[in-house]
């Protein structure tokens, strides 16, 4: 009986040690990738390529989702607000939900699914086909060549995507509220403008999405870099990237919302 | 000497160069789209005015109760926005709310007999400041930068009104 | 070239284990300059690991690996990188970069390290591709090539920087007889023409014996025999004989160690 209990305690201990070690390895990886700044010319070329893969290729899904989420928010909001004769407040409702929460959060979740999983799979495949080892044997640091440009591309792309998401979402709400439901366009904008504060809303939107970008890209790169090099390992790592990023995004969002708007 | 042209490997242009070029253009557009979204949010959604320091002047007003008035709430004259609330603070000595107004220089000829009231748009809507221009007479000067408006009317608190209504109804029925 | 010349790589009393499992126990060997040295042994004894230890990608638990007199695992990062520019490795999978074509793969290290102009790099790459007979596929992507061709392209990439030493990880594994012949010819020819030091890790006995100048045979976590191919063919070590002849049973038993057979049939698996 007591042996079983001690075994369980040992399991908990091993689990904790594994996790702490994993976090340590992830930290070292990120530190090494960031600190060794890439050389300017070659680094820029690599970064541009990754911005294309990570940013440009995620743009369609972000814009389409943003448009629809803005429209749905407006439709649902309208049916509730119109009951109180407060349909004028549709603009601020949509704009504030998008800028404060949905913009950064949904963009980061979509980004984790679209770009994060692709990063993990790509790097996992590079590792399992020994391309990373091969770079090392060519005296080229894979952290600098492979990890760093992808990290920066993620950190640059996600905030931009979140801004695009919120912007197109607000225009989606405008389509539903003004063109369809007949709210006056002037009052839609003026009430919206009166309630959106650029420092508390837009800057916080950017802060949130930068934090999410760092976390998602970091998890994706770490999962790929430390993959068990076989097909099963890669598929597992890809799933882990999406699950862990999503949980991290939602938890961090709650934390940051409490700090920014909770007071 | 190997003839490079016959091998179809050309140094600068060619398929690969075109592809890189296309990627560069798309990445450039991506960055510009991000910047455009930022600018739209800042200037169109948050409506940040690039304030040229001399286009506004400041007024102060004391209220008994500011109710739901907020920073950036509009100041209106007959429905026309002439300025915005810049700050709401409590006077440390008199313990009364002091509202700082940022007024548009375009509308600068209000007499110092003007009155200010906290009004509500609709039954439950946002609160704003209604400015009522006073009479103009000899010895009445115009409001300047840094002046205070003395004639103010505090916010109507709905709960108080309902309370009064109920009180007066019950006293009548007796 | 005399036998007294200093070896390029010297491994001294190397010990390495992965978790609880001991992979090497007290391995010592030396690899002479300009020769083809083969390391043979059955699958799954960590021959690739040995190459990674030699390249400084893994760190041993004990012992040293000296490259030209420098202890690879005591070097600073930049020293290690400058050593790695003098060696290269042909991975079993080829490990070509899948996002660029064959030409760019071969040009990659040159562009990174040589500082040469693009037009000179182009000529060097074409010469390397010509040497492995793949100039015709310069513009194709690695995935369009057969396994043997991928390995040859990877070989062209490995010799692009004109290293002093090339390590071949199972170069013959899974090749058809023709590609096998091509690779044997290439390794031998490159070694002679460029005065390369070659380290071939393999379990393909006949091919290895046909190209190697000197052979080490590994089993049981250490080296069990070494000598010239001729000497090994006639050596009288049971384990070595079984390996060279490919006998299914012998010192390396056919059966993996297990519980008593009758016992298990009667009472089922425990």
From TrEMBL, chain C:
Q: Does the keyword Transport apply?
A: yes
InterPro entries in the record: AAA+_ATPase, ABC_transporter-like_ATP-bd, ABC_transporter-like_CS, P-loop_NTPase
Q: Which Gene3D superfamilies match?
A: P-loop containing nucleotide triphosphate hydrolases (3.40.50.300)
Its keywords, alphabetically, are: ATP-binding, Nucleotide-binding, Transport
Boundaries of every ABC transporter domain copy: 9-245
Highest taxon listed in the record's lineage: Bacteria
Give GO MF terms, alphabetically.
ATP binding
Q: Which PANTHER family match?
A: INTERMEMBRANE PHOSPHOLIPID TRANSPORT SYSTEM ATP-BINDING PROTEIN MLAF (PTHR43023:SF6), PROTEIN TRIGALACTOSYLDIACYLGLYCEROL 3, CHLOROPLASTIC (PTHR43023)
User: What protein name applies here?
Assistant: Phospholipid ABC transporter ATP-binding protein MlaF
Provide the species name: Shewanella surugensis
Lineage start: Bacteria, Pseudomonadati, Pseudomonadota, Gammaproteobacteria, Alteromonadales
